[in-house]
Each structure stands twice: as structure tokens, then as C-alpha cells.
Amino acid sequence: MTKITIRAYNIGFGDCFLLKFPYSNSDGGDRFILIDFGTSSRPKKTKTDLPVKIAKDIKAQCNGHLHAVVVTHRHKDHLSGFSTKRTGIESGDIIASLKPDLVVQPWTEDPELPTDATSPKKIYAEGLNLGLNFVKNIYKRVKFLRNLQDPKNLQLVEEIKFLGRSNIANKSAVDKLIEMAKGDKGEYVHYGSETRLNEILPGVEVHVLGPPTIEQSEEVQKQRSKDATEYWHMQNTIFQSLTPSSVSKDSTPPLFPLFPDVEPISKEKLSPDSIWFADRVKTTHLEQIYSIVRILDRVLNNTSVILLFEFGDKKLLFSGDAQIENWEYALAKPEIRKLLADVNFYKVGHHGSLNATPKILWDLFKNRNEDKDYDNRLICLLSTKKGKHGSFSRGTEVPRGKLLKELKENSNLIDTQEIELGDLYTDINIG
Questions:
Q1: CB–CB of 345/362 below 8 Å?
Q2: Would you list the domain boundaries of the chain?
């Protein structure tokens, strides 16, 4: 096998990668794997038809047939491109017309699972769906909080709105993926799964490194708000201290209603000595909402599929938005650490967030090197859009500055934000 090509689409805050594995005509010709297709914020100066343009390019590249689709998890910025024209977007219909032989998703997405399953065929999907509906309600009504006196709270309002857009269930896309997976084409994977990608890609070994099932690792249910050792410097602020650090396996996140069905009291109707108190109540209200929305955001991220493609002496690592609780199960195993040590290509987790490239993982990569002329220097791909997620003041901006500095200094970094204005993609050759 010669060079594998990764086409990284300029999709904004989201992921969309088309992998081309070259094979001779006698071996059936080239194979094409699509990993994720979604955005929650398009690049500047792009139109709403961007997903359609990308879908048409995918169709042209793969000659009308995809061999597999991998959707790492259910966030909008990873699957909205699979939406259909029922929502005004036909990109999902274009992808479905390519009739993929296999649709790979995390075990938590299996539509046949009971809601209390802790492993495949036996999620806390009911709690998850309750959470998605709750966030949808938050997103619709968060404008109630815009009249706060403290300007810094407006930044929190905007982040809650952004997280809300990302977390709202994309029913059209989910339904289209279920339809595409019919006829035994669906595969719902977890750590250690045997994947049919190995049959589709002769000569390539595909390792499923995540997510673990709850039976494999109860830790995947917990989301710690800070980690001085593994995170890229998360400041200890009131917002972290208000974020619950774990979720009991016997209960769903505390999705209690925060919006009574009444209109907010305007300041004009309050006495001067009551305005101060009202503002603080609203601020506390906002902080509680932020905490709960972040819980759901982390839960979904930690269902991300982690795949390692190994061919010849090359290894490609795609980890979706997996955070440390997802990673820990695999990284605890010496054989997996050894397997990851000589990775040549790494798709940077969660658009460069502070907690999706654990330092224990980064330190494993022996091909990271300050020498730009190092022949086998690690290649990193970052698909992101700055200014849409997190906060500089809280040290949670995406992409995280400290991580970005490390990526630039110790790897050949390809950042989709640097794709020329008007260009749809950039191609990366590995091999």
C-alpha cells in the first residue's frame, strides 16, 4: 500500500475527514472511509450550503460509493452533515446515496439497547435523551438571562447557547444513520471490539480503543472538572467548583427544571434595593445552568469512538472528542501504551480542548519532536474554530493556548483554520 490520503474539510467548528486507502484494480480498487460529518459553526464567509458542497465533493472523490462511515458520537458538530432535506439540508441524502457497506458508531447508539444497559446487547440512553430535551429547552429560553448587570455573564450566556446548539438532538441525522445501518450494516463498538473495517481494508489493522462500556470502566460515567496532571491548565474558578464531578451509576444527571413557565420580572417593576438581589439570583441561576449543560456535553464526548489504523510502519489515531475518562481504560494497559508510542498521525481531540489530549497520551508519542526536519515527525490535525467555545478568562478556550503551543512546537500541525479562504479542504498524505 502506498500513501493514504486524509482529506480534512474546512467545516468550521466540527469534524469531517475522508480517508482514501489505495488498492490496485485487481484488489477491488481504492477504499474510502468517512469519519464524522458535522459542524456547529461554519467558517466565516461560507454559506448554509457548505454541507451540501462537502457531500458532493465526497461523492466525487469516492466515485459514488463509500466503503464505511464512522460517526464517533452524537454531537451536532460530528453528525449534522447526515441531516436530510426534511430540515432544509440535503447533505445526508447525498451521503446515503453512496450506500456505505458499514456504519460504525459507539455502542451507546445501538437503537436496540434497553435504556438501562451497561454493555452492548444487555446506556443510560433514557437519561441522555431527557438531557437532550432539557438542553433544547434551555437553548430556547436562555435569552431570559441577557439583562444581567455583570457583562462577564453575557459570555456565559453565549457559551451556554453554543453548547445548547451542539447538544440538541439531531433527530434527522440520527434517523438517517439508523436507516443507513439497516440490513446488518450497523456496527456499535467499544474498547476491544472486532470491527469489520478490517475486512474492508485488507492489509490494515484497525484497533478499537474506546469507548469502554460501563461494565469495563465505571469511570467513564464520571467527568472530573479539573486535573492538574492531565489537563492543559484548567483554572480553579467558581464555575468548576459548581460543576458536579461525578454521576452515580444508579442515577441520571440532575436534570431538574430551571425555567419556570413565567416571564422574568423586569427591573422596572423592582424597587431599587431589590435589583441587587435579583441580579445575584439570576447569576446563580446561570451558573447552575452552565454546570448542567457541561455535564451532558462531557457525557456525550466520553462516548466517542477511538480508532487506531495500522498499516506497514504507519499508525493513524482518530479519537473524536474523547476525554480522559474515556482514555483511561485503554491507557491503563501496557500493550496499548506500546501500540500508541509510535503513532505518526493524531487527529487532535475535541477541537483542541484542554481535557481531550491527556498529557499521559501526549507524552507517549515518541515522534513528537522540536526538530522540524525530523524525518518521522508527528503530524497533528486540528479541526476547530476559535472564539466559539470556552473562555480565556477561565482558561477553557478552544483551542486551548497551552496545548496549541505544544502542538506547534513539537509536531507538524495542520489547522483547518489556516485553510485558504474559499478552499473546501486540505489533503494530508501519510506513507
A1: no
A2: 4-122+169-221+305-430, 128-164+224-298
Q: What is the pTM of this model?
A: 0.76
Q: Nine-digit cell at 9?
A: 474539510
Listed residue (293, 299, 341) closest to 321, CA to CA:
299
Element (H, E) at 6: strand 4-9
- Using a 10 angstrom Cβ sphere, with 0-12 exposed, 13-18 middle and 19 or more buried, the burial of residue 249 is exposed
Between CA 92 and CA 98, with CA 96 as vertex, the angle to 5 degrees is 125
CATH fourth-level superfamily of 4-122+169-221+305-430: Ribonuclease Z/Hydroxyacylglutathione hydrolase-like (3.60.15.10)
Tell me the pLDDT tens digit for each residue of 41-95.
Answer: 999 889 989 999 999 999 999 999 999 999 999 888 999 999 987 556 689 999 9
Kindly report, residue by residue over 180-201, the tens digit of the pLDDT: 999 999 999 999 999 999 999 9
Instruction: Give one word for 48, left, alpha or beta, with left for phi > 0 and alpha for psi -120 to 50.
Output: alpha
Q: Which amino acid is at 258?
A: L
Residue 125 vs residues 191, 215, 360: alpha-carbon distances, Å: 19, 15, 30
